[in-house]
Structure formats: structure tokens, C-alpha cells
Write a structure and sequence with these properties.
- With 239 residues, this protein is mainly α.
- The chain folds into two domains: 122 residues, Rossmann fold (3-Layer(aba) Sandwich), CATH 3.40.50; 110 residues, Rossmann fold (3-Layer(aba) Sandwich), CATH 3.40.50.
- It is 54% helix and 10% strand.
- A three-stranded parallel beta sheet has the order 2-1-3, sandwiched between helices. Strands 4-5-6 form a three-stranded parallel beta sheet, with helices on both faces.
- It is globular and about 50 Å long.
Length: 239
Amino acid sequence: MQTIGLIGGMSFESSAVYYRLINEMVRERLGGLASAELVMHSVNFEEIVSMQKAGDWTAAANRLGDVALNLQAGGANCVLICTNTMHLIADQVASRISVPLIHIIDETARSLKAASCKRPLLLATRYTMEHGFYADRMKTLGVDIMVPEAADRTTVHDIIFNELCAGKVVESSREKLMRIIERAHAKGADGIILGCTEICLILDPNRLPLPGFDTTAIHAKAAVDFSIGEEAIKETAAA
């Protein structure tokens, strides 16, 4: 089993979901009391948010690059940045390490294409919806995404930072998100990307009017696939 390295804490609410999902998937595949080999460095999110607000992505890349390097030194055979937004500086982080960085956008694009989803709506932070890095990379991978209108982008961003990252799940906010989804459906969206790793706390991807793609679960599965591989699954099944 390969060791998974997690850059967490952005926010710790979703990092806890990563930890649970990865271990549940390993146990499901290998059976018994199997659990994942992993190391996590959970950063102070307040520090990262300050960099986001200041637009200091160079400082953010340096900070997470240092963390990734420490994870590698601690035995990680791959690294995940456990947040969509900070994939804005994923290439810079990846350049600091010699082990693979499992990219959340690439893995999500594979899931979208496998489901023949060509025009999904992206629900995420303002940085992810507006900075272009997400849409541009998706386009190179063959997927054209939609984003909500400006007012709806503000609503989604505020729900993420003011509520979900603080551990609050508010029913009225769920209803707001569902109305945003309905408007996108009317404009031709054929799927929903839960493009912030906290959105799975408030929206169930299996209970939406369109196919839902939970980036947290997709990313976690990719880590498990890397860690144990098909051969390990076959060997366990044959034992």
C-alpha cells in the first residue's frame, strides 16, 4: 500500500471528510480492519484565507509547497491538496515535489467525461468560479463548465465561507443552492460539480435534479486507487 499525503485544513471540515472517505474506501476494498496509510498536514486556514483575500498566490504556493515537501519527506508517495480553490497554485506545488500530485480538476474531468456530461454547472468559491484556472483546465480536458450569475456566485461563496467552513449547515442555504441549480438546469446544464470540498456537507450529489459530481469523493477515490491499485484488490480477493 502506498502512503497518501494530504494537505488539509482548508477547511478542516472537509479534511475530516477526506480522512473518513479514504479509510472507508480502503476498508471496503481490502476488507477486515484495513485502513489507509496516510499522513496529513493540516494548515491554519485563517492564514491561507488572508493570502486569498490579498491575492498573494505566490505566498500561498510557497506555503503549500513547503507542506508538500514535508509530506514527501515524511513518506508520502503522492500528495493531494484537499481543496479545489488552492488548485489555482497546484502546478507550483507539484514542481516542489518528485512524487505525483493528484489533481482534483483532472480527476473530476474524468468522471464527467465517463458520464458523458458536457456542460456542468460549477458550484464553488468565488476564486474557483471566477479566476479562470478551473474552467481553462477543464476545457483542455474536453469539458465546458457553466458558472452561476454574479449574484448567485456571491451567494454560493458566502455559504461556503460563512457557514460550511464554520461547520454550519443551514436549510435555507440548501434551498438557495437548489434554486441556483434549477436556474442552471433551465439554461442547459447537464450536471452539477460540487466544486468546493465543503459543499458535500449541504448537498447530496445523488439527490439533485441533475447528475452530481462530488469533487471530495472523486479526489479521495483517486487517492485510494493510487494507494492500493487493482493488483492489491485482486490479491486480497484471491486470498
